[in-house]
């Protein structure tokens, strides 16, 4: 999860989970109470930190294992260090930012009843949540795509439908032979 040209940067294990830490050297060393690393020759420059990435990340991981994610995030945020939680799928919908941005949508689907979907994370005044629709059924928009998007004539569509039917018969015949 790390960055090719920045250390520390990435996801790190805590006592009870994972958090991400953004570029913030040397402030993060102070927050983690490993300030001695700032003057350690292995970590004084970005080149040295990159050469000694494994050692520095081991120190950070060992330090982070002492407390839970929430404690570390509170401390990091208090020191204005970019950091965030790494959620499992069950935790994502409870994140305040996910809720505020209405990322999880609930809508009706003709086959599944009420379903939950992930909405567009890009929020702009011109994007209205009411415009979202449930996922289409197989082939539901084929005619619109052929006519409106691709500009196919009725003859071309009929030709494609005939070709599709021929392929389907061929596949069914092969399937019966192998079954």
Summarize the structure.
The protein is of the alpha+beta class. Helix content is 40%, strand content 13%.
What's the overall average pLDDT, rounded?
92
What structural class is derived from the secondary structure elements?
alpha+beta
Tell me, what's the shape?
elongated
Give the helix tally: 7
- Report the sheet with the most strands, covering strand number, pairing sense and barrel closure: 3 strands, antiparallel
Low-confidence stretches: none
Account of the 3D structure:
- Helix content is 40%, strand content 13%.
- It has a three-stranded antiparallel β-sheet, covered by helices on one side.
- It is of the alpha+beta class.
- The protein contains seven helices and five strands.
- The longest helix is centred in the last third of the chain and has 25 residues, at 154-178.
- 13% of the residues are buried.
